[in-house]
Amino acid sequence: MSESGIRQMGVSDVRANMTEVIAEVRLLGTPVALTRREKPQAMLISMDRWKQAALDAEVRPFHDDVVRRLKSLLEDKEFADVLERKDPTLHEVLSAGAL
Question: Could you tell me the pTM of the whole model?
């Protein structure tokens, strides 16, 4: 298992042990990188992780747009002052570029 918690397996090993590999991915949530000559070729992940990734991909453009618009609004000193008073943590995060 790699440091990132992703197990790497050769395609032929996965093929020979498919039932066990699928059970490990499904029950333990451990993703498996399918490799050929030790180079990653594909990823086997649980349905829960896939659903979350699909949702993240769907929501990400809206998130990025909201963050961009808020950062743009910070250029308005009056808005920035009100935000800093009302929600200092959000103001700090946006000002620092942490999002």
Answer: 0.60
Residue 40: strand pairing partners: 35
Strands (E) across 1-99 are located at: 7-10, 32-36, 39-44
pLDDT-derived band of residue 32, with 50, 70 and 90 as boundaries?
very high
Q: What is the DSSP string of the chain?
A: --TTS-EEEEHHHHHHTHHHHHHHHHHH---EEEEETTEEEEEE--HHHHHHHHHHHHHHHHHHHHHHHHHHHTTSHHHHHHHHHH-HHHHHHHHHT--
- Report whether 35 contacts 9 (CB < 8 A): yes
Q: Would you say 31 and 7 are in contact if contact means Cβ atoms under 8 Å apart?
A: yes
pLDDT tens per residue across span 41-89: 999 999 999 999 999 999 999 999 999 999 999 999 999 999 999 999 9
